[in-house]
Design goal:
Length: about 325
């Protein structure tokens, strides 16, 4: 039995007040007039003092009709104002019975002959937990071909997503070769070592063989190479925050003083409605990087089958939109 049910079956608590008062003053009859029961003898101390009992109108948010509740008030403020059950708690406490609210409600129900509410014949259905709508499934992101070293090997071994490449970059797989490359002073020797010992990808798409006419599916990505950058890590962060083009991946080159920028080509056409060629997009991005970042792009990037070597870079950037499943990734270090 609940507090609310007991009050609803006792005329909003008036019957409980009457019952407590009659226990100490058997001859007292409570008179209800409008919203007041007038002054009544105090049943708690039963010393001749007076309490006032009123029926308060309590509006309920979201309901048109208010609820009514009988409440008491001590003019001498011996007790704080409250409802009938609060006065009953004080009454029994004064007589040495310290009852919990559940015990008190049971006691009052027994004394006033109020039975438990009937249970429905048919059991109520348990409310089912509201299912949250599942996130819309995103289409799989385009893939690129992954090639095992050396560069002379032109047959890919598998397809790779941007997340696959990111996990490769931040792992230790190419760490030893990358560190060795950065100790080689001679440019020719460094290029030979890189070509022989680093795996690579074709960001432009998937291929049967690394030739333009062997293209299986264009990815919509392009890699732009920047060489001899004074602050390569700083450029990676700037490219990560570029608002004009969508950076997919950005990482330091094997030499350590360059940057590889893999960018999504915008879905746009020429004014006459014809699509831009891969080479025309390269010109657009080259001019853009020169104007915005003040750096020249390596012109070899205009080929769709352009190879991109994969070094070790624990600070590589991956666009969070290209995360396919849970990985440890801290985007905050790239935020301005």
């Amino acid at each position: 039995m609940t507090r609310e049910y007991l009050l609803s079956r006792t005329n909003n608590g008036i019957d409980i007040f009457q019952h407590l008062i009659r226990k100490e003053f058997p001859d007292h009859i409570m008179h209800v007039s409008g919203s007041s029961c007038g002054e009544c003898p105090d049943p708690v101390w039963a010393d001749g003092s007076i309490i006032q009992i009123t029926i308060d109108r309590i509006p309920v948010p979201g309901q048109r009709l208010p609820i009514y509740k009988a409440r008491y008030h001590y003019p001498d403020e011996q007790l704080f104002d409250g409802d009938a059950i609060a006065l009953a708690a004080a009454y029994y406490n004064q007589r040495g019975e310290r009852l919990t609210e559940e015990q008190l409600i049971t006691r009052l129900a027994e004394e006033l002959y109020i039975k438990e509410p009937r249970k429905p014949f048919f059991p109520e259905e348990e409310p089912q937990e509201e299912q949250k709508p599942s996130a819309p499934a995103l289409p799989p992101c385009p893939k690129m071909s992954f090639f095992r070293r050396p560069i002379k090997n032109t047959k890919p071994c598998r397809e790779a997503s941007p997340q696959d490449i990111y996990k490769y970059l931040v792992s230790d797989y190419a760490k030893a070769h990358t560190e060795h490359i950065r100790t080689i002073a001679d440019n020719r020797e460094r290029s030979r070592y890189k070509a022989a010992n680093l795996d690579y990808i074709t960001p432009g798409g998937t291929f049967r063989s690394r030739k333009e006419n062997e293209l299986i599916q264009a990815s919509g990505y392009m890699v732009i190479d920047f060489d001899h950058i004074p602050n390569a890590k700083g450029l990676v962060k700037r490219l990560a925050n570029d608002t004009n083009f969508e950076t997919i991946l950005a990482f330091r080159s094997p030499s350590g003083d360059g940057v590889k920028w893999i960018v999504a080509l915008p879905n746009t056409t020429k004014p006459d409605g014809t699509p831009f060629t891969y080479g025309e997009f390269f010109t657009i991005l080259s001019n853009y990087s020169k104007k915005i970042y003040g750096i020249e792009a390596d012109p070899s990037g205009k080929d769709i089958c352009r190879a991109c070597f994969l070094p070790h870079d624990p600070d590589a950037f991956l666009n969070p939109l290209y995360i396919e499943n849970d990985i440890e990734y801290d985007i905050t270090k790239f935020l301005p």
